[in-house]
Amino acid sequence: MYFFSHPLGGASQSERPSMIHSGKINEILSQKGVTVWTIRPDATVFEAIQMMAEKNVGALLVTDEGKLTGIISERDYTRKVAIKGRSSKELKVREILSPKIVHATPLHSVEECLRLMTEHRVRHLPVLDGETIAGVISIGDLVNWIISTQTATISQLEAYISGYPVPPE
């Protein structure tokens, strides 16, 4: 099934044609892997940024005794530390976390996650199965999923079309 949300509105969402494959987040996690990088809330922001650089990720989940307490991203560092002239070597991760954690479940669709990310202006979503951390998805993961499903659909349509010659007029 495919969904397309027209950015300019017009027809109701259920009446609009669709091009986003409604894959589930568990499909994305099974392809990308479920490795999750975490950091403690009492770690310094400098340690968090250093770990993000080492692991080549844009965000870390903040956990305390295995429980998700927040997320810290490069954007948090830029907006809450660097621009304000604060010291990342003294500031604790817990001091810049937002209290509300926006998350997805393995059964959320790609479209639902795109909507969540847009509404809450986030680039990373923890994926929770109950209270268990199942993974993390980024906006890049969703874009890659959409591109690959659209590429597969185009290839299938091209094969279908080329397999049936157009009758002469």
Q: What is the percentage of strand-forming residues?
A: 15-25%
CATH top level class name: Alpha Beta
Approximate helicity band: 25-40%
Classified in CATH, the superfamily is: CBS-domain
**Euclidean distance between termini CA atoms:** 34 Å
Number of separate strands:
7
Succession of helices and strands: EEHEHEEHHEEH
**Which segments are poorly predicted (pLDDT under 50) over 5 or more consecutive residues?**
1-19
- According to CATH, the fold-level topology is CBS-domain
The CATH architecture term is: Roll
What is the radius of gyration computed over CA atoms, rounded to a whole number of angstroms? Answer: 20 Å
Mean pLDDT level: 84
Descriptors for this entry?
169 residues, three-stranded mixed beta sheet, two-stranded antiparallel sheet, disordered N terminus
Structure description:
By secondary structure, this protein is an alpha+beta fold. It has a single domain (2-6, 34-162), classed as CBS-domain (Roll), CATH 3.10.580. It is 37% helix and 19% strand. The chain contains five helices and seven strands. Helix 4 (110-120) runs antiparallel to helix 5 (139-162). Residues 1-19 have low confidence and may be disordered.
List the helices and strands and how they pair.
Blueprint: E1 2-3, E2 20-21, H1 25-32, E3 38-39, H2 45-55, E4 59-64, E5 67-73, H3 74-82, H4 110-120, E6 124-129, E7 132-138, H5 139-162
Parallel strand pairs: 3-4
Antiparallel strand pairs: 1-2, 4-5, 6-7
Summarize this structure briefly.
The chain has helices at 25-32, 45-55, 74-82, 110-120, 139-162; strands at residues 2-3, 20-21, 38-39, 59-64, 67-73, 124-129, 132-138. It has 169 residues and is of the alpha+beta class.
